[in-house]
Amino acid sequence: MSSAQVWKPEDYDNQISFVSAYGKGLIELLAPRSGEQILDLGCGTGDLAKEISDAGAFVVGMDYSQEMISKAQEKYPSLHFITGNGENFSLDTPVDAVFSNAALHWMTNAKDTLASVYQALKPEGRFVAEFGGKGNIAAIVNAIEEVLSSDYNIDPKASNPWYFPSIGEYTFLLEKIGFRVTLAHHFDRPTRLHGGKNGIKEWLHHFGQCFFTELTREDQHEAFEKISQLTEQSLWKDDAFWADYKRLRVVAYK
Length: 254
Ligand code: BEZ
Fold this sequence. Notes:
The protein has helices at residues 9-13, 18-30, 47-54, 66-75, 110-120, 138-152, 167-177, 199-207, 217-235; strands spanning 37-41, 58-63, 80-83, 95-101, 121-132, 180-188, 191-192, 236-237, 240-243, 246-253. By secondary structure, the chain is of the alpha/beta class. α4 (66-75) links the parallel β2 and β3.
């Protein structure tokens, strides 16, 4: 998990609220039951933890960002939230399920993350997750790489904070840890960005800061503009930018 990424809870709940909105479908796959104990790994400001709790489950929401956890606790005071590093955590009491939406691509040490998840589960407990899969936001990543390397002589690979595995790579890892994989699905999910013509620039502002820490404000502004222009041909449609999201969804049992 890169510490250069700064999360702003108010943005998470407004400009990028699609993150939680899309996660609702994943809760159907989780099918939480009354009385179950469930960990929401990378819970953000807690909206999905609240939905899981509404089904009668006891939820613990965990996030790396203290700002996100403070906001989640303020919004949902009756729920239990903790800060924690998804790549290396342990729970006092094992849970029936670990749920994770749009968070695992920030945890680049997937082996240690999955080992922590496995440890956190009761025998036969389930892991239900969705995150960026192979080829996710390729048009955006290619444009970032092109602008940083040719205009600023920066190696963008060194600051790339994301992990987007293929089905084969990720299910292999799950099985190696000891999981029984019952579902793995890689699919396109073009995502309409807020902000009209500023959509890519706003997206970079929310999610892509890690790449631009060495640039001055003016250079950053210029780089965002160029990246936006480079992606326009492939991502601008029907009066909006559509980010080329590709998701990986998995269900696996201990
Ligand atoms: C995603 O949800 O796929 C994603 C979000 C922000 C940065 C990278 C990927």
